[in-house]
């Protein structure tokens, strides 16, 4: 009996000793970060700024104990299969075909933020920034990350050479005409050009003069691109084109390069160009002024211009973990210090009062910040801002640009071209408004 107990004790000791020297179990391998693809078409300082912010976000995500994510940039110019949708895309609706070879459906941002359980108080946004990306029910559809205001850029050296005061830019279209004449007489081959023509010279000219772009015709909505002020403005530009005061560069951003290279003395375009000019063309002294207006039109409101540009849209994100990472990324982008760095690097509009305060605290231009804040804080929806933009805006702009090409080719007078744009765009507007009504 004693011998049996001794054997049992010896076996127990051997078992304990063996377990003591057994190799420890390897720690559980943490799951790989969830990749979130963000497609873009940025270049220069803007893409560098976005890449820097994404690195900061990815570093924050890597420190999470729970499942984390990783945002990865995808340049649209470097892919062959554009139809394969990314999780996120930073793009202007006008560029949808170039970005995706289609017009993809999107997942409303307010739904993603709710699914990701991230705080998303719409009061943190400027009214006009929110208004640019909300739906008919007042729900945010995308993040207005890369928006601009229409402005007038002018070359101060060219103004001086033409005998114009470089510190006093033209405020009205009649003053632009006078300046263009003097610039032409001084040898300028391109006194004035424009980028994003339809947005600047149709939508914003209408907004400045309280002209709606959609009106009621009975119970149906009807486009009013051919309103009085737009016809008047197009007629004036046509006369400038014939006098070589105005040189049409194209419907997109083609005019930006012509101004940046000193070829054109004035440019109407996006305010975000300011950052590029300041960094890439420091040798060209330029000024920035509000978009000119007509002082002989009753009720003109020069500052009433429409923010527009690229927003961050959620596309192929059907899984909850993906939406959780995206929601955290959106919350990260909304931080005042992140917004400050983004706006300073790109020139895009700040989304929130907290961002403007952060810019002030870091030495931002107080005059420019005050102008932007005054415009973005306006509560009232502009007459020219209509919800057809959510569905058919880019197609309507394409039609408008096509008809305006006939004007520059001297094939149609301005009113006939605008009338034709209204007729051609009617089938686009009808289903767009029907879709809005269902929401």
Q: What can you tell me about this protein's structure?
A:
This protein is α/β, with parallel strands linked by helices and 439 residues long. It has 2 domains: 34-147 and 307-376, 3-Layer(aba) Sandwich (D-Maltodextrin-Binding Protein, domain 2), CATH 3.40.190; 150-305 and 386-438, 3-Layer(aba) Sandwich (D-Maltodextrin-Binding Protein, domain 2), CATH 3.40.190. The chain contains 17 helices and 11 strands. It has helices at residues 2-20, 44-62, 96-100, 109-115, 127-131, 156-161, 173-185, 197-208, 228-242, 254-260, 273-280, 320-333, 336-346, 353-361, 366-376, 393-408, 414-438; strands spanning 34-40, 69-75, 88-91, 143-148, 150-155, 192-194, 214-217, 220-223, 266-270, 286-290, 308-314. The strands form 3 sheets. It has a 5-stranded mixed β-sheet. Strand 1, helix 2 (44-62) and strand 2 form a beta-alpha-beta unit. Helix 4 crosses helix 12 (320-333) and helix 13 packs across helix 14. The longest helix has 25 residues, at 414-438. It is globular and about 85 Å long. The N and C termini lie far apart (86 Å). The model is unreliable at 8-21 and 386-391 (pLDDT under 50).
**CATH fold-level label of the largest domain:** D-Maltodextrin-Binding Protein, domain 2
Mean pLDDT: 86
Overall radius of gyration: 28 Å
Give the overall form: globular
Percent helix range:
40-55%
The H-and-E topology, N to C, reads as HEHEEHHHEEHHEHEEHHEHEEHHHHHH
End-to-end distance = 86 Å
Oligomer: single chain
Domains (count): 2
Q: Output the structural class.
A: alpha/beta
CATH superfamily of the largest domain: Periplasmic binding protein-like II
CATH class of the largest domain: Alpha Beta
CATH architect. name of the largest domain: 3-Layer(aba) Sandwich
Which band does the percent of strand residues land in? 5-15%
Low-pLDDT residue spans: 8-21, 386-391
Number of helices: 17
> Which strands sit side by side, in order, in the main sheet?
2-1-3-11-4
């Amino acid at each position: 009996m004693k011998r049996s107990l001794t054997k049992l004790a010896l076996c127990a000791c051997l078992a304990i000793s063996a377990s003591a020297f057994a190799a420890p179990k390897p720690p559980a391998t943490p799951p790989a970060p969830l990749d979130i693809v963000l497609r873009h078409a940025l270049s220069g300082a803007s893409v560098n700024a976005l890449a820097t912010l994404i690195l900061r976000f990815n570093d924050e995500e890597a420190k999470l104990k729970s499942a984390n994510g990783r945002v990865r940039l995808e340049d649209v110019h470097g892919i062959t299969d554009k139809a394969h949708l990314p999780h996120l895309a930073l793009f202007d609706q006008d560029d949808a075909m170039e970005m995706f070879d289609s017009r993809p459906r999107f997942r409303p941002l307010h739904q993603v933020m709710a699914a990701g359980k991230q705080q998303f108080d719409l009061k943190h946004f400027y009214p006009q920034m929110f208004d640019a990306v909300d739906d008919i029910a007042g729900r945010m559809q995308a993040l207005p990350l890369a928006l601009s205001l229409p402005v007038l850029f002018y070359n101060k050296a060219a103004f001086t050479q033409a005998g114009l005061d470089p510190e006093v830019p033209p405020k009205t279209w009649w003053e632009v005409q006078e300046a263009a004449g003097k610039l032409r007489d001084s040898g300028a081959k391109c006194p004035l050009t424009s980028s994003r023509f339809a947005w600047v010279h149709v939508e914003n000219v209408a907004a400045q003069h309280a002209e709606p772009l959609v009106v009621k015709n009975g119970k149906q909505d009807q486009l009013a691109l051919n309103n009085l002020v737009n016809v008047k403005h197009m007629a004036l530009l046509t006369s400038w084109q014939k006098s070589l005061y105005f040189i049409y560069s194209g419907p997109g951003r083609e005019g930006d390069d012509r101004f940046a290279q000193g070829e054109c003395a004035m440019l109407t375009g996006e305010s975000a160009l300011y950052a590029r000019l300041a960094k890439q063309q420091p040798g060209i002294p330029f000024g920035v002024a509000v978009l000119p207006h007509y002082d002989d039109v009753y009720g003109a409101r020069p500052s009433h211009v429409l923010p527009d540009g690229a927003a961050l849209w959620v596309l192929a994100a059907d899984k909850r973990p993906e939406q959780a990472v995206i929601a955290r990324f959106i919350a990260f982008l909304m931080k005042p210090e992140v917004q400050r760095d983004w706006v300073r690097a790109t020139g895009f509009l700040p989304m929130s009062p907290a961002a403007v305060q952060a810019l002030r605290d870091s030495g931002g231009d107080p005059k420019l910040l005050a102008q932007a804040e005054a415009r973005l804080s306006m509560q009232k929806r502009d007459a020219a801002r209509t919800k057809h933009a959510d569905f058919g805006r880019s197609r309507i702009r394409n039609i408008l640009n096509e008809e305006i090409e006939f004007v520059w080719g001297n094939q149609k007078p301005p009113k006939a071209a605008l009338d034709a744009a209204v007729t051609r765009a009617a089938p686009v507007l009808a289903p767009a408004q029907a879709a809005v009504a269902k929401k």
